Amino acid sequence: MKLTLRVWRQRAADADGAMSTYEVDGISADMSFLEMLDTLNEELILKGEDPVAFDHDCREGICGACSLVINGDAHGPERTTTCQLHMRSFADGDTIDVEPWRASAFPVVKDLVVDRSAFDRIIQAGGYVTAPTGAAPEAHATAVPKPDADFAFEHAECIGCGACVAACPNGAAMLFTSAKVNHLNVLPQGAPERETRVLDMVAQMDEEGFGGCTLAGECATACPKGIPLVSITGMNKEWLRATRKASRR
Amino acid sequence: MARTVWDSSVGKKTVMAVSGLIMLLYLVVHMIGNLKIFFGPGEFNHYAHWLRTVGEPFMHYEWTLWLIRVALVVAVFAHATSAYQLSRRDIRARPNKYVHKKARASYATRTMRWGGIILALFIVWHILDLTTGTVHSGGFQEGHPYQNVVDTFSTWYGNVIYIVAMLALGLHIRHGFWSAAQTLGVGSRNRDRALKTVANALALLLTAGFLAVPVGVMTGLVS
Ligand code: HEM
Ligand code: SF4
Ligand code: FES
Q: Is B4:B11 a contact under the CB 8 Å cutoff?
Protein backbone atom coordinates (compact mmCIF):
# COMPACT_ATOMS: atom_id res chain seq x y z
CA MET A 1 0.00 0.00 0.00
CA LYS A 2 1.06 3.55 -0.69
CA LEU A 3 -0.26 6.21 1.67
CA THR A 4 -0.10 9.94 2.23
CA LEU A 5 0.19 10.85 5.90
CA ARG A 6 -0.54 14.26 7.33
CA VAL A 7 1.02 14.22 10.78
CA TRP A 8 0.97 16.82 13.57
CA ARG A 9 4.58 17.88 14.20
CA GLN A 10 5.45 19.98 17.21
CA ARG A 11 9.04 20.18 18.42
CA ALA A 12 8.27 20.92 22.05
CA ALA A 13 5.45 21.73 24.45
CA ASP A 14 5.81 25.48 23.98
CA ALA A 15 6.57 25.39 20.23
CA ASP A 16 3.97 25.98 17.52
CA GLY A 17 2.91 22.87 15.66
CA ALA A 18 1.56 22.15 12.20
CA MET A 19 0.51 19.25 9.99
CA SER A 20 3.37 17.87 7.85
CA THR A 21 2.81 15.67 4.82
CA TYR A 22 4.73 12.40 4.24
CA GLU A 23 4.45 9.63 1.68
CA VAL A 24 4.95 6.02 2.79
CA ASP A 25 5.18 3.06 0.42
CA GLY A 26 5.37 -0.69 0.81
CA ILE A 27 2.87 -0.82 3.68
CA SER A 28 1.36 -4.26 4.23
CA ALA A 29 -2.32 -4.59 5.13
CA ASP A 30 -1.25 -6.81 8.04
CA MET A 31 0.88 -4.13 9.65
CA SER A 32 -0.49 -2.37 12.70
CA PHE A 33 -0.90 1.39 12.53
CA LEU A 34 2.13 1.79 14.80
CA GLU A 35 4.25 -0.48 12.56
CA MET A 36 3.26 1.74 9.67
CA LEU A 37 4.53 4.74 11.67
CA ASP A 38 7.71 2.75 12.50
CA THR A 39 8.25 2.37 8.75
CA LEU A 40 7.88 6.11 8.30
CA ASN A 41 10.27 6.78 11.18
CA GLU A 42 12.94 4.43 9.77
CA GLU A 43 12.86 6.41 6.55
CA LEU A 44 13.00 9.72 8.40
CA ILE A 45 15.98 8.56 10.48
CA LEU A 46 17.83 7.39 7.35
CA LYS A 47 17.20 10.81 5.81
CA GLY A 48 18.58 12.42 8.97
CA GLU A 49 15.23 13.91 9.93
CA ASP A 50 13.59 13.90 13.36
CA PRO A 51 11.33 10.82 13.71
CA VAL A 52 7.68 11.30 14.66
CA ALA A 53 7.28 10.94 18.43
CA PHE A 54 4.30 8.83 19.54
CA ASP A 55 3.42 6.89 22.69
CA HIS A 56 3.28 3.10 22.76
CA ASP A 57 4.24 0.25 25.04
CA CYS A 58 2.56 -3.17 25.06
CA ARG A 59 1.28 -3.07 21.48
CA GLU A 60 -1.24 -5.67 22.64
CA GLY A 61 -4.14 -3.37 23.42
CA ILE A 62 -3.83 -3.71 27.18
CA CYS A 63 -1.59 -0.96 28.55
CA GLY A 64 -3.28 2.22 27.37
CA ALA A 65 -0.08 3.92 26.27
CA CYS A 66 -0.86 4.33 22.58
CA SER A 67 -3.07 7.18 21.45
CA LEU A 68 -3.52 9.16 18.16
CA VAL A 69 -6.55 10.75 16.59
CA ILE A 70 -6.70 9.18 13.15
CA ASN A 71 -8.90 10.90 10.56
CA GLY A 72 -10.74 12.59 13.40
CA ASP A 73 -11.37 9.38 15.37
CA ALA A 74 -9.56 8.58 18.63
CA HIS A 75 -7.71 5.27 17.98
CA GLY A 76 -8.93 5.37 14.37
CA PRO A 77 -11.90 3.87 12.57
CA GLU A 78 -12.17 0.54 14.45
CA ARG A 79 -13.22 0.06 18.06
CA THR A 80 -9.77 -0.90 19.31
CA THR A 81 -6.50 0.69 20.37
CA THR A 82 -4.20 2.25 17.78
CA CYS A 83 -1.65 -0.54 18.35
CA GLN A 84 -4.32 -3.10 17.46
CA LEU A 85 -5.58 -1.17 14.45
CA HIS A 86 -4.42 -2.79 11.22
CA MET A 87 -3.68 -1.15 7.92
CA ARG A 88 -6.35 -3.29 6.24
CA SER A 89 -8.78 -0.73 7.65
CA PHE A 90 -7.38 1.67 5.05
CA ALA A 91 -7.17 1.55 1.26
CA ASP A 92 -4.19 1.98 -1.04
CA GLY A 93 -3.75 5.66 -1.91
CA ASP A 94 -5.58 6.96 1.20
CA THR A 95 -4.61 10.20 2.87
CA ILE A 96 -4.57 9.75 6.65
CA ASP A 97 -4.58 12.60 9.18
CA VAL A 98 -2.79 11.82 12.44
CA GLU A 99 -3.17 14.19 15.41
CA PRO A 100 -2.49 14.06 19.13
CA TRP A 101 -5.22 13.88 21.82
CA ARG A 102 -6.59 17.40 22.20
CA ALA A 103 -7.54 18.68 25.66
CA SER A 104 -6.12 21.43 27.81
CA ALA A 105 -5.59 18.85 30.59
CA PHE A 106 -3.47 16.77 28.15
CA PRO A 107 -0.80 19.20 26.91
CA VAL A 108 1.29 18.13 23.94
CA VAL A 109 4.83 17.13 24.95
CA LYS A 110 6.13 16.53 21.45
CA ASP A 111 4.49 15.68 18.11
CA LEU A 112 1.83 13.09 18.95
CA VAL A 113 2.82 12.57 22.58
CA VAL A 114 0.65 14.20 25.24
CA ASP A 115 1.08 14.38 29.00
CA ARG A 116 -1.64 12.27 30.59
CA SER A 117 -0.47 12.59 34.19
CA ALA A 118 -3.76 14.35 35.00
CA PHE A 119 -5.25 10.82 34.90
CA ASP A 120 -2.64 9.62 37.42
CA ARG A 121 -3.65 12.40 39.79
CA ILE A 122 -7.32 11.44 39.46
CA ILE A 123 -6.36 7.87 40.41
CA GLN A 124 -4.23 9.17 43.30
CA ALA A 125 -7.26 11.06 44.56
CA GLY A 126 -9.20 7.84 45.22
CA GLY A 127 -8.83 5.18 42.55
CA TYR A 128 -7.45 2.57 44.92
CA VAL A 129 -8.30 0.47 47.97
CA THR A 130 -6.45 1.25 51.21
CA ALA A 131 -7.00 -2.12 52.90
CA PRO A 132 -3.64 -3.88 53.28
CA THR A 133 -3.86 -6.79 50.86
CA GLY A 134 -0.74 -8.85 51.50
CA ALA A 135 -0.56 -12.04 49.49
CA ALA A 136 -3.49 -12.92 47.21
CA PRO A 137 -6.34 -14.01 49.52
CA GLU A 138 -8.38 -17.15 49.05
CA ALA A 139 -10.81 -16.35 46.27
CA HIS A 140 -13.93 -17.15 48.28
CA ALA A 141 -12.87 -15.26 51.42
CA THR A 142 -14.94 -12.25 50.34
CA ALA A 143 -18.10 -13.23 48.55
CA VAL A 144 -19.03 -11.00 45.59
CA PRO A 145 -22.35 -11.60 43.82
CA LYS A 146 -21.85 -12.55 40.20
CA PRO A 147 -23.63 -9.50 38.71
CA ASP A 148 -21.45 -7.20 40.85
CA ALA A 149 -18.31 -9.04 39.83
CA ASP A 150 -19.29 -8.69 36.16
CA PHE A 151 -20.08 -5.02 36.62
CA ALA A 152 -16.75 -4.39 38.34
CA PHE A 153 -14.88 -6.32 35.68
CA GLU A 154 -16.56 -4.46 32.83
CA HIS A 155 -15.32 -1.19 34.33
CA ALA A 156 -11.93 -2.57 35.32
CA GLU A 157 -11.29 -3.04 31.62
CA CYS A 158 -10.53 0.68 31.27
CA ILE A 159 -6.87 1.01 30.31
CA GLY A 160 -6.65 4.74 30.98
CA CYS A 161 -5.78 5.60 27.39
CA GLY A 162 -7.66 8.90 27.35
CA ALA A 163 -9.50 8.35 24.07
CA CYS A 164 -12.70 9.37 25.87
CA VAL A 165 -11.20 12.79 26.65
CA ALA A 166 -9.83 13.14 23.13
CA ALA A 167 -13.21 12.38 21.57
CA CYS A 168 -15.30 14.51 23.93
CA PRO A 169 -16.27 17.93 22.53
CA ASN A 170 -15.76 19.29 26.07
CA GLY A 171 -12.50 17.46 26.84
CA ALA A 172 -14.27 15.75 29.73
CA ALA A 173 -12.78 12.86 31.72
CA MET A 174 -16.14 11.60 32.97
CA LEU A 175 -16.00 8.19 31.25
CA PHE A 176 -12.52 7.39 32.59
CA THR A 177 -13.35 8.59 36.09
CA SER A 178 -16.68 6.77 36.11
CA ALA A 179 -15.02 3.53 35.02
CA LYS A 180 -12.68 3.71 38.02
CA VAL A 181 -15.37 4.79 40.48
CA ASN A 182 -17.84 2.11 39.38
CA HIS A 183 -15.19 -0.59 39.35
CA LEU A 184 -14.21 -0.07 43.00
CA ASN A 185 -17.47 1.22 44.45
CA VAL A 186 -19.44 -1.92 43.64
CA LEU A 187 -16.98 -4.27 45.38
CA PRO A 188 -16.86 -5.00 49.12
CA GLN A 189 -13.14 -4.16 49.11
CA GLY A 190 -13.96 -0.67 47.86
CA ALA A 191 -16.87 -0.07 50.25
CA PRO A 192 -15.02 1.69 53.12
CA GLU A 193 -13.99 4.54 50.80
CA ARG A 194 -17.10 4.50 48.66
CA GLU A 195 -18.09 8.12 49.37
CA THR A 196 -14.70 9.82 49.62
CA ARG A 197 -13.54 8.04 46.46
CA VAL A 198 -16.18 9.51 44.19
CA LEU A 199 -16.12 12.97 45.81
CA ASP A 200 -12.32 13.25 45.68
CA MET A 201 -11.92 11.83 42.20
CA VAL A 202 -14.59 14.13 40.73
CA ALA A 203 -13.03 17.11 42.55
CA GLN A 204 -9.60 16.22 41.13
CA MET A 205 -11.09 15.81 37.67
CA ASP A 206 -12.48 19.36 37.91
CA GLU A 207 -9.19 20.61 39.34
CA GLU A 208 -7.26 19.28 36.33
CA GLY A 209 -9.33 21.43 33.99
CA PHE A 210 -11.32 18.71 32.25
CA GLY A 211 -14.70 19.81 30.89
CA GLY A 212 -18.10 18.63 32.04
CA CYS A 213 -20.44 16.05 30.56
CA THR A 214 -23.09 17.16 28.07
CA LEU A 215 -23.96 13.54 27.31
CA ALA A 216 -22.91 13.83 23.70
CA GLY A 217 -21.80 10.19 23.91
CA GLU A 218 -18.62 10.58 21.83
CA CYS A 219 -16.51 9.07 24.65
CA ALA A 220 -18.32 5.76 24.73
CA THR A 221 -18.19 5.53 20.93
CA ALA A 222 -14.42 6.04 21.00
CA CYS A 223 -13.58 3.86 24.00
CA PRO A 224 -11.56 0.83 22.83
CA LYS A 225 -12.76 -1.15 25.85
CA GLY A 226 -16.46 -0.48 25.40
CA ILE A 227 -17.00 1.35 28.69
CA PRO A 228 -20.66 2.38 28.24
CA LEU A 229 -22.06 5.91 28.52
CA VAL A 230 -24.36 4.74 31.32
CA SER A 231 -21.24 4.42 33.53
CA ILE A 232 -21.36 8.20 33.80
CA THR A 233 -24.95 7.94 35.02
CA GLY A 234 -23.72 5.46 37.62
CA MET A 235 -20.99 7.81 38.78
CA ASN A 236 -23.46 10.72 39.02
CA LYS A 237 -25.63 8.52 41.21
CA GLU A 238 -22.67 7.65 43.45
CA TRP A 239 -21.68 11.32 43.63
CA LEU A 240 -25.19 12.43 44.66
CA ARG A 241 -25.40 9.65 47.23
CA ALA A 242 -22.01 10.57 48.70
CA THR A 243 -22.91 14.27 48.79
CA ARG A 244 -26.14 13.52 50.66
CA LYS A 245 -24.33 11.27 53.13
CA ALA A 246 -21.53 13.75 53.70
CA SER A 247 -24.05 16.48 54.54
CA ARG A 248 -25.64 14.28 57.21
CA ARG A 249 -22.35 13.77 59.04
CA MET B 1 -23.63 20.67 50.95
CA ALA B 2 -24.67 23.67 48.85
CA ARG B 3 -20.98 24.58 48.43
CA THR B 4 -19.99 21.03 47.40
CA VAL B 5 -22.74 21.02 44.81
CA TRP B 6 -22.10 24.46 43.35
CA ASP B 7 -18.30 24.00 43.25
CA SER B 8 -18.46 20.74 41.33
CA SER B 9 -19.12 20.29 37.63
CA VAL B 10 -21.29 17.29 38.50
CA GLY B 11 -23.13 19.35 41.13
CA LYS B 12 -23.77 22.26 38.76
CA LYS B 13 -25.11 19.82 36.26
CA THR B 14 -27.48 18.59 38.98
CA VAL B 15 -28.68 22.17 39.46
CA MET B 16 -29.34 22.32 35.70
CA ALA B 17 -31.25 19.06 35.76
CA VAL B 18 -33.46 19.99 38.72
CA SER B 19 -34.17 23.53 37.51
CA GLY B 20 -34.80 22.18 34.00
CA LEU B 21 -37.30 19.66 35.29
CA ILE B 22 -39.08 22.35 37.34
CA MET B 23 -39.41 24.48 34.19
CA LEU B 24 -40.54 21.43 32.23
CA LEU B 25 -43.29 20.69 34.75
CA TYR B 26 -44.43 24.30 34.55
CA LEU B 27 -44.43 24.19 30.75
CA VAL B 28 -46.70 21.13 30.67
CA VAL B 29 -49.24 22.95 32.86
CA HIS B 30 -48.81 26.18 30.88
CA MET B 31 -49.33 24.39 27.57
CA ILE B 32 -52.54 22.72 28.74
CA GLY B 33 -53.79 26.08 30.04
CA ASN B 34 -53.06 27.73 26.69
CA LEU B 35 -55.24 25.24 24.84
CA LYS B 36 -58.29 26.75 26.61
CA ILE B 37 -58.05 29.51 24.01
CA PHE B 38 -59.87 27.19 21.60
CA PHE B 39 -62.96 27.36 23.83
CA GLY B 40 -63.42 31.08 23.33
CA PRO B 41 -62.60 34.34 25.11
CA GLY B 42 -64.96 33.69 28.01
CA GLU B 43 -63.35 30.47 29.11
CA PHE B 44 -59.77 31.65 28.42
CA ASN B 45 -60.09 34.94 30.26
CA HIS B 46 -61.87 33.26 33.12
CA TYR B 47 -59.00 30.76 33.38
CA ALA B 48 -56.53 33.65 33.47
CA HIS B 49 -58.51 35.25 36.26
CA TRP B 50 -58.63 31.96 38.17
CA LEU B 51 -54.82 31.83 38.06
CA ARG B 52 -54.91 34.93 40.27
CA THR B 53 -57.41 33.58 42.73
CA VAL B 54 -56.13 30.00 43.18
CA GLY B 55 -55.72 29.05 46.82
CA GLU B 56 -58.20 31.61 48.13
CA PRO B 57 -59.29 32.11 50.84
CA PHE B 58 -56.04 30.78 52.33
CA MET B 59 -54.03 32.76 49.81
CA HIS B 60 -54.67 36.40 49.03
CA TYR B 61 -55.35 37.54 45.44
CA GLU B 62 -52.31 36.71 43.21
CA TRP B 63 -50.27 35.19 46.05
CA THR B 64 -50.13 31.73 44.45
CA LEU B 65 -49.28 33.25 41.11
CA TRP B 66 -46.44 35.23 42.62
CA LEU B 67 -45.11 32.15 44.42
CA ILE B 68 -44.96 30.33 41.10
CA ARG B 69 -43.33 33.33 39.45
CA VAL B 70 -40.63 33.52 42.11
CA ALA B 71 -39.94 29.77 41.83
CA LEU B 72 -39.67 30.12 38.05
CA VAL B 73 -37.33 33.10 38.22
CA VAL B 74 -35.08 31.16 40.60
CA ALA B 75 -35.17 28.13 38.28
CA VAL B 76 -34.40 30.16 35.13
CA PHE B 77 -31.61 32.04 36.88
CA ALA B 78 -30.04 28.89 38.36
CA HIS B 79 -30.32 27.09 35.03
CA ALA B 80 -28.85 29.90 32.95
CA THR B 81 -26.02 30.61 35.38
CA SER B 82 -24.97 26.95 35.54
CA ALA B 83 -25.30 26.66 31.76
CA TYR B 84 -23.03 29.65 31.29
CA GLN B 85 -20.41 28.50 33.80
CA LEU B 86 -20.38 24.88 32.59
CA SER B 87 -20.16 25.95 28.96
CA ARG B 88 -17.19 28.18 29.73
CA ARG B 89 -15.46 25.30 31.48
CA ASP B 90 -16.16 23.00 28.52
CA ILE B 91 -14.79 25.46 25.98
CA ARG B 92 -11.66 26.11 28.03
CA ALA B 93 -11.07 22.36 28.37
CA ARG B 94 -10.87 21.94 24.61
CA PRO B 95 -9.05 25.00 23.19
CA ASN B 96 -7.44 23.31 20.16
CA LYS B 97 -9.71 21.89 17.52
CA TYR B 98 -8.81 18.89 15.41
CA VAL B 99 -7.59 19.64 11.90
CA HIS B 100 -9.57 16.68 10.59
CA LYS B 101 -13.19 17.70 11.10
CA LYS B 102 -15.95 15.20 11.67
CA ALA B 103 -19.70 15.56 12.15
CA ARG B 104 -20.17 14.83 15.84
CA ALA B 105 -23.02 14.16 18.20
CA SER B 106 -26.70 14.43 17.42
CA TYR B 107 -28.56 17.53 16.34
CA ALA B 108 -30.38 17.98 19.65
CA THR B 109 -27.09 17.71 21.58
CA ARG B 110 -25.30 20.30 19.49
CA THR B 111 -28.17 22.77 19.75
CA MET B 112 -28.40 22.82 23.57
CA ARG B 113 -26.33 26.01 23.92
CA TRP B 114 -27.78 27.93 20.99
CA GLY B 115 -31.23 26.62 21.82
CA GLY B 116 -30.77 27.77 25.41
CA ILE B 117 -29.83 31.28 24.31
CA ILE B 118 -32.85 31.42 22.00
CA LEU B 119 -35.07 30.29 24.88
CA ALA B 120 -33.60 32.90 27.24
CA LEU B 121 -34.26 35.69 24.73
CA PHE B 122 -37.71 34.32 24.09
CA ILE B 123 -38.60 34.25 27.78
CA VAL B 124 -37.74 37.96 28.07
CA TRP B 125 -39.71 38.89 24.97
CA HIS B 126 -42.66 36.72 25.96
CA ILE B 127 -42.99 38.38 29.38
CA LEU B 128 -42.65 41.88 27.92
CA ASP B 129 -45.24 40.98 25.29
CA LEU B 130 -48.01 39.15 27.12
CA THR B 131 -47.44 39.73 30.84
CA THR B 132 -46.38 43.38 31.12
CA GLY B 133 -47.44 44.41 27.62
CA THR B 134 -44.33 46.59 27.20
CA VAL B 135 -43.57 45.45 23.64
CA HIS B 136 -47.12 44.41 22.80
CA SER B 137 -48.59 45.46 19.47
CA GLY B 138 -52.19 46.58 19.08
CA GLY B 139 -52.83 47.97 22.54
CA PHE B 140 -52.28 45.70 25.54
CA GLN B 141 -55.39 45.14 27.63
CA GLU B 142 -54.88 44.06 31.23
CA GLY B 143 -57.27 41.21 32.06
CA HIS B 144 -58.03 40.40 28.43
CA PRO B 145 -55.40 37.81 27.54
CA TYR B 146 -57.51 36.32 24.74
CA GLN B 147 -57.41 39.55 22.73
CA ASN B 148 -53.73 40.08 23.56
CA VAL B 149 -52.80 36.63 22.25
CA VAL B 150 -54.76 37.24 19.06
CA ASP B 151 -52.94 40.57 18.60
CA THR B 152 -49.52 38.98 19.02
CA PHE B 153 -50.15 36.22 16.54
CA SER B 154 -51.62 38.65 14.04
CA THR B 155 -48.13 40.07 13.45
CA TRP B 156 -45.64 38.18 11.28
CA TYR B 157 -42.76 38.72 13.72
CA GLY B 158 -44.86 37.54 16.66
CA ASN B 159 -45.41 34.27 14.84
CA VAL B 160 -41.80 33.91 13.69
CA ILE B 161 -40.32 34.52 17.16
CA TYR B 162 -42.78 32.13 18.74
CA ILE B 163 -42.38 29.33 16.20
CA VAL B 164 -38.55 29.47 16.30
CA ALA B 165 -38.60 29.41 20.09
CA MET B 166 -40.97 26.46 20.28
CA LEU B 167 -38.85 24.44 17.84
CA ALA B 168 -35.81 25.25 19.99
CA LEU B 169 -37.81 24.18 23.03
CA GLY B 170 -38.65 20.82 21.45
CA LEU B 171 -35.00 20.09 20.68
CA HIS B 172 -33.93 21.29 24.12
CA ILE B 173 -36.38 18.99 25.89
CA ARG B 174 -35.58 16.08 23.63
CA HIS B 175 -31.96 16.00 24.77
CA GLY B 176 -32.58 17.70 28.11
CA PHE B 177 -35.10 15.32 29.61
CA TRP B 178 -33.00 12.26 28.91
CA SER B 179 -29.85 14.11 30.04
CA ALA B 180 -31.45 15.13 33.30
CA ALA B 181 -32.22 11.47 34.01
CA GLN B 182 -28.53 10.62 33.52
CA THR B 183 -27.39 13.56 35.64
CA LEU B 184 -29.69 12.54 38.47
CA GLY B 185 -28.47 8.95 38.21
CA VAL B 186 -31.84 7.41 37.38
CA GLY B 187 -30.93 6.29 33.86
CA SER B 188 -29.91 2.69 33.27
CA ARG B 189 -29.39 0.28 30.40
CA ASN B 190 -32.88 -1.17 30.85
CA ARG B 191 -34.57 2.20 31.14
CA ASP B 192 -32.74 3.91 28.30
CA ARG B 193 -35.28 3.24 25.59
CA ALA B 194 -38.20 4.23 27.82
CA LEU B 195 -36.50 7.48 28.83
CA LYS B 196 -35.74 8.39 25.22
CA THR B 197 -39.33 7.64 24.24
CA VAL B 198 -40.71 9.84 27.03
CA ALA B 199 -38.25 12.60 26.07
CA ASN B 200 -39.39 12.49 22.45
CA ALA B 201 -43.05 12.36 23.44
CA LEU B 202 -42.70 15.33 25.80
CA ALA B 203 -40.80 17.32 23.19
CA LEU B 204 -43.37 16.60 20.52
CA LEU B 205 -46.36 17.18 22.78
CA LEU B 206 -45.10 20.51 24.11
CA THR B 207 -43.99 21.83 20.73
CA ALA B 208 -47.26 20.83 19.06
CA GLY B 209 -49.38 22.03 21.98
CA PHE B 210 -47.74 25.44 22.15
CA LEU B 211 -47.72 25.85 18.35
CA ALA B 212 -51.43 25.08 18.15
CA VAL B 213 -52.20 28.59 19.46
CA PRO B 214 -50.45 30.70 16.76
CA VAL B 215 -51.62 28.22 14.12
CA GLY B 216 -55.15 28.67 15.47
CA VAL B 217 -54.88 32.45 15.14
CA MET B 218 -53.26 32.27 11.70
CA THR B 219 -55.97 29.98 10.35
CA GLY B 220 -58.72 32.12 11.85
CA LEU B 221 -59.87 29.40 14.25
CA VAL B 222 -59.09 31.80 17.07
CA SER B 223 -59.93 35.44 16.42
C1 HEM C 1 -32.91 30.49 30.20
C2 HEM C 1 -32.99 29.76 29.12
C3 HEM C 1 -32.21 28.47 29.00
C4 HEM C 1 -30.87 28.31 28.81
C5 HEM C 1 -29.81 29.39 28.65
C6 HEM C 1 -30.61 26.87 28.79
C7 HEM C 1 -29.39 26.29 28.56
C8 HEM C 1 -29.13 24.94 28.68
C9 HEM C 1 -27.89 24.31 28.34
C10 HEM C 1 -26.66 25.01 27.76
C11 HEM C 1 -28.01 22.99 28.64
C12 HEM C 1 -26.95 21.93 28.46
C13 HEM C 1 -26.04 21.99 29.64
C14 HEM C 1 -25.05 20.89 29.62
O15 HEM C 1 -25.32 19.85 29.00
O16 HEM C 1 -24.01 21.06 30.26
C17 HEM C 1 -29.34 22.79 29.18
C18 HEM C 1 -29.83 21.59 29.65
C19 HEM C 1 -31.14 21.40 30.05
N20 HEM C 1 -32.17 22.29 29.94
FE21 HEM C 1 -31.98 24.23 29.49
N22 HEM C 1 -31.78 26.20 28.99
C23 HEM C 1 -32.80 27.15 29.10
C24 HEM C 1 -34.15 26.91 29.29
C25 HEM C 1 -34.68 25.67 29.57
C26 HEM C 1 -36.11 25.42 29.72
C27 HEM C 1 -37.22 26.45 29.53
C28 HEM C 1 -36.22 24.12 30.08
C29 HEM C 1 -37.52 23.41 30.39
C30 HEM C 1 -38.01 22.52 29.64
C31 HEM C 1 -34.89 23.54 30.12
C32 HEM C 1 -34.60 22.23 30.44
C33 HEM C 1 -33.34 21.67 30.42
C34 HEM C 1 -33.02 20.35 30.88
C35 HEM C 1 -34.00 19.34 31.48
C36 HEM C 1 -31.64 20.18 30.66
C37 HEM C 1 -30.80 18.94 30.95
C38 HEM C 1 -30.01 19.11 32.22
C39 HEM C 1 -29.04 17.99 32.33
O40 HEM C 1 -28.39 17.65 31.33
O41 HEM C 1 -28.89 17.43 33.41
N42 HEM C 1 -33.98 24.52 29.79
N43 HEM C 1 -30.01 24.00 29.18
S1 SF4 D 1 -12.86 4.90 29.52
FE2 SF4 D 1 -12.17 3.88 27.60
S3 SF4 D 1 -11.40 5.60 26.36
FE4 SF4 D 1 -11.50 6.36 28.47
S5 SF4 D 1 -9.48 5.98 29.33
FE6 SF4 D 1 -10.72 4.16 29.84
S7 SF4 D 1 -10.33 2.74 28.14
FE8 SF4 D 1 -9.58 4.73 27.43
S1 FES E 1 0.43 0.18 23.11
FE2 FES E 1 -0.47 -0.71 24.89
S3 FES E 1 -2.60 -0.42 24.44
FE4 FES E 1 -1.66 0.24 22.60
A: yes
Question: In this complex, which of A97, A105, A212 lies closest to B9 when CB atoms are compared?
Answer: A212
Does any CB of chain A come closer than 8 Å to the CB of residue B97?
A: yes
Domain end, chosen from A81, A110, A139, is at A110
CATH class of the B2-96+104-219 domain in this structure? mainly alpha
Q: How many CB atoms lie within 10 A of CB A65?
A: 18
Whether residue A230 sits in one domain with residue A182:
yes
CA–CA dist A130, A128 (Å, integer)? 7
For an interface test with B, the pick among A233, A243, A245 (most B C-beta atoms closer than 10 Å) comes out as A233
In the reported structure, the alpha carbon of residue B176 is separated from the centroid of ligand 1 by a whole-number distance in angstroms of 6
pLDDT tens-digit series, residues A101-141: 999 999 999 999 999 999 999 999 999 998 776 788 787 88
CB of B54 closer than 8 Å to CB of B65: yes
Chain B environment of A169 (Cβ under 8 Å): 90, 94, 104-105
Does the global pTM surpass 0.90?
yes
Tally of structural domains, chain A: 2
A vs B, Cβ pairs < 8 A, gives: 135
B93 CB neighbours in chain A (<8 A) are 103-105, 170-172, 209-211
- pLDDT tens per residue, range A60-111: 999 999 999 999 999 999 999 999 999 999 999 999 999 999 999 999 999 9
> Residue A73's domain is classified under what CATH number?
3.10.20.30
Confirm if A82 and A75 have CB atoms less than 8 A apart. Answer: yes
Q: What is the ipTM of this complex?
A: 0.92
Show the 3-state SS of chain B: CHHHHHHCHHHHHHHHHHHHHHHHHHHHHHHHHHHHHHHCHHHHHHHHHHHHHCCCCCCCCCHHHHHHHHHHHHHHHHHHHHHHHHHHHHHHHCCCCCCCCCCCCCHHHHCHHHHHHHHHHHHHHHHHHHHCCCCCCCCCCCCCHHHHHHHHCCCHHHHHHHHHHHHHHHHHHHHHHHHHHHHCCCCCCCCHHHHHHHHHHHHHHHHHHHHHHHHHHHCCCCC
* Chain A nearest C-alpha distance from B101 (Å): 6
Q: What is the CA(A66)–ligand 3 centre distance, in A?
A: 5
Q: Check whether residue A169 and residue A104 sit in a common domain.
A: no
Residues A243 and A122 in one domain: yes
Domain end among A45, A79, A110: A110
